[in-house]
Recover the amino acids of this structure.
């Protein structure tokens, strides 16, 4: 493991010693659960979700100046801008699992530094830091949502045999063919919608004691979260059923709804149902196409590198899962270059 036990202990101590920690985290279940695990471990602090961009940009330095923390913890963000690093003077802990970066003024922890094939998500690292067995259900949701089965899977199955079994021996089976599917969707769907509603859901989630509060609606707060999830699920299904999957090689679908993005969720489900195909799901927002790409057979970052040549756009991610944004005028060129490199 690239992140050693001594590293976990070092991070643990810094968070425990902090009197005013500020957490920045990515806007997906892995990022959210990484924050929740460390927030529950610490008992207090402030969390800020970084939306719609892989980079923690300089504009977020104002949040640091407003809150005046003595420690900044960055979770599951692939990049931090120089502008942010230059403006923030307190210690920065940066914990991530994307392509390794130069630490540049932060204490940087990434399992891929020593072993590039180690794709353990940030929620896994956060669970190891928090070392809190009662939150194993949270950590498992974060890992499964990020297509990863952790080494504490057997312990989870023993505690929650109705949610996962040994038959669910691959990440997609756990994500789509077990009761974990609903839990993972809940944590994804509460991050969609108006900011005020998202913040309300996150605050409630920080106080949920076990997965059955959500699945069986055993508390008023659990009922509230589940009701919001059901509303999002209805919208998700109304879009998903319109997707044409008949092409033998690639499933390409774009929609123009502007309120909520389901591109990542739909692309993951489509990949599980169609593992032999390349998935390209996106939505048009303004003059850009924002899309999620999935494949079990192709190195998507390498393909994107060629597809984005002489194109106004950007993208990146993991070997089999990427995000990408392309200007509307350049999309036809991008798509041709993408297909030519499959």
């Amino acid at each position: 493991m690239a992140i050693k036990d001594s590293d976990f202990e070092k991070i643990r101590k810094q968070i425990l010693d902090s009197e005013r920690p500020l957490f920045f985290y990515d806007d997906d279940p892995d990022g959210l659960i990484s924050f929740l695990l460390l927030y529950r471990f610490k008992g207090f602090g402030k969390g800020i979700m970084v939306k719609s961009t892989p980079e923690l940009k300089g504009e977020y330095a104002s949040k640091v100046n407003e809150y005046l923390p003595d420690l900044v913890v960055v979770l599951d963000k692939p990049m931090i801008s120089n502008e942010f690093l230059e403006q923030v003077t307190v210690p920065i802990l940066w914990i991530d699992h994307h392509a390794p970066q130069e630490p540049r003024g932060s204490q940087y922890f990434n399992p891929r530094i020593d072993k590039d094939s180690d794709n353990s998500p940030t929620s896994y690292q956060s669970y190891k830091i928090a070392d809190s067995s009662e939150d194993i259900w949270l950590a498992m949701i974060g890992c499964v949502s990020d297509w990863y089965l952790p080494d504490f899977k057997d312990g989870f199955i023993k505690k929650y045999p109705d949610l996962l079994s040994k038959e669910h021996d691959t990440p997609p089976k756990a994500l789509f063919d077990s009761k974990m599917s609903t839990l993972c969707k809940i944590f994804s769907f509460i991050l969609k919608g108006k900011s005020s509603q998202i913040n309300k859901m996150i605050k409630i989630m920080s106080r949920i004691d076990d997965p059955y509060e959500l699945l069986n609606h055993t508390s008023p707060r659990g009922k509230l979260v589940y009701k919001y999830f059901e509303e999002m699920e209805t919208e998700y299904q109304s879009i998903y059923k319109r997707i044409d999957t008949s092409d033998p090689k690639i499933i390409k679908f774009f929609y123009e709804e502007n309120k909520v993005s389901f591109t990542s969720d739909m692309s993951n489900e489509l990949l599980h149902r169609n593992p032999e195909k390349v998935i390209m799901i996106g939505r048009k927002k303004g003059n850009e196409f924002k899309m999620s790409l999935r494949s079990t057979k192709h190195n998507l970052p390498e393909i994107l590198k060629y597809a984005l040549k002489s194109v106004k756009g950007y993208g990146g991610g993991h070997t089999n899962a990427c995000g990408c944004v392309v200007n509307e005028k350049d999309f036809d060129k991008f798509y041709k270059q993408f297909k030519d490199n499959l």
User: Anything to note?
Assistant: The chain has two domains: 5-154+165-178, 250-340. The chain has 15 helices and twelve strands.
